[in-house]
Specification:
The chain is mainly α. Helix 8 packs antiparallel against helix 9, helix 9 runs parallel beside helix 11 and helix 11 runs parallel beside helix 13. Strand 1 and strand 2 form a beta hairpin. The strands form three sheets. Strands 1-2 form a two-stranded antiparallel sheet. Strands 3-4 form a two-stranded antiparallel ribbon.
């Protein structure tokens, strides 16, 4: 298995290096990026993959890369179809969310939190599909999304006291897309190493520091970053906060202030683990919330604990109990995290989890896609809008090469 993983990593690294266009400098501004690629951008309609312009120059290389990561052509076509739908439905100001559909299929115009969350998820999808600064597939879409996310202050959700110390966020518990700050920070961290823009660096550092400062003494995060002893620290919010720190670690920004919070986050999540293999949403809960099992395993896999007993028992629970109901009324959140954990299980030499769960989850996602390229809103949870599900499911479908890419970046 180690030889296979090494082969995949080397092959992926070779694909990355062979895609570097001749004559480009190491850094390129967003303006230069758009200027050089305007004629190559998509006209927001579906095109055959072999004609899809991207950093691989030829779509054939992209297909081979996806196949290396275990994706069949049907899955690749679903990714292209979904990204094109997102590009078509970008709002005039560069964000997403003005024209969404809620869980009942009714028109829904999101608030600022909703739009920041949707725009951040969409930007990450476009960048992880083609994690290269000279990608020519969606240059205008990417530029407009970054401009939307950086038009307001990096700390716009933060509240400070007279001494300048963080006292919390303006986001309240129970509100939709309560993890908007963490998603926005993650997207900017993801974009920085691609474009090396000074503005992106400033935003990424400032927003991530707020996430670090908002960590509760338990090691997790509450919705509004309340640090009082009785604050309701939440696994869902904590997972997205830790994802922000992880993307910051991958950004190449050499700041050591994230390492201790990440270690504390592991201890917090282990404290949520139950004897049945699941994870509680809140420390005060008596029982696990089984649809969050993948969310608990997710961070343990990312940060030094991929082979821990808690991670293994969580994967066993997903494989033995959760797979049987994936085609029924499950949340997109569960599918997203469970599929991601199955990918990462392969790198921990637990191939049986990867082979079984990734196949079933991947098949379920592809089959559920609408003819227009989106995924319909969910009826299980009110916040599962059309944009939310489409973004999360696309994120899941694109993940295999992203996981390899992250490995390559750590090895360099």
């Amino acid at each position: 298995m180690l030889l296979i993983l090494r082969f995949l990593i080397v092959g992926f690294a070779s694909a990355l290096s062979s895609c570097e266009p001749d004559g480009h400098s190491e850094k390129v501004s967003l303006a230069e990026f758009i200027e050089s690629n305007q004629s190559l951008s998509l006209n927001a309609d579906d095109k055959p993959l072999t004609k899809q312009p991207c950093w691989c120059i030829s779509g054939v290389r992209q297909v081979k890369l996806q196949q290396l990561a275990g994706i069949k052509k049907k899955g690749v076509d679903a990714i292209i179809h979904g990204l094109n739908w997102l590009a078509k439905n970008q709002d005039d100001d560069g964000g997403w969310g003005k024209r969404d559909l809620d869980g009942s299929g009714k028109s829904f115009a999101g608030n600022e939190q909703h739009r920041d969350a949707m725009t951040s998820l969409a930007l990450i999808n476009f960048l992880q599909f083609c994690p290269h600064r000279f990608c020519t597939a969606y240059p205008k879409t990417i530029q407009r999304a970054i401009k939307y996310l950086t038009k307001s202050k990096a700390d716009k959700y933060a509240k400070f006291n007279k001494e300048g110390r963080l006292t919390g966020l303006t986001i309240q518990e129970g509100t939709e897309f309560m993890h908007a700050h963490c998603l926005r920070a993650s997207a900017l961290c993801f974009a920085y190493p691609i474009f090396k823009e000074k503005t992106l660096k400033e935003y990424a550092v400032k927003a991530t520091k707020i996430t670090v400062d908002g960590q509760h003494e338990s090691g997790g995060w509450s919705t509004d970053f309340n640090k009082a002893k009785d604050a309701k620290v939440d696994l869902v919010v904590s997972t997205w906060a830790l994802q922000n720190l992880y993307n910051f670690a991958l950004s190449g920004l050499m700041y050591s202030f994230i390492y201790e919070p990440c270690d504390d986050g592991v201890d917090y999540i282990k404290g949520l683990h139950t004897s049945g293999g699941g994870f509680k949403r809140f420390l005060s809960d008596n029982e696990s919330q089984d649809d969050l099992t993948g969310a608990g395993v997710y961070w343990l896999q990312l940060w030094k604990n991929a082979k821990s007993p808690e991670s293994k028992s969580g994967l066993e629970k997903i494989l033995n109990e959760r797979l049987s109901i994936i085609r029924n009324r499950v949340s997109s959140y569960e599918v997203f995290f469970n599929l991601d954990t199955s990918y990462k299980a392969a790198s921990a030499n637990w191939v049986k989890y990867w082979r079984k769960s990734s196949r079933d989850y991947y098949s379920a996602l592809v089959d559920a896609q609408s003819n227009n390229g989106s995924w319909p809103p969910g009826s299980t949870h009110d916040h599962e809008t059309q944009l939310y599900r489409t973004n999360l499911f696309l994120h899941s479908l694109i993940l295999p090469p992203l996981s390899l890419h992250a490995t390559v970046r750590y090895l360099k």
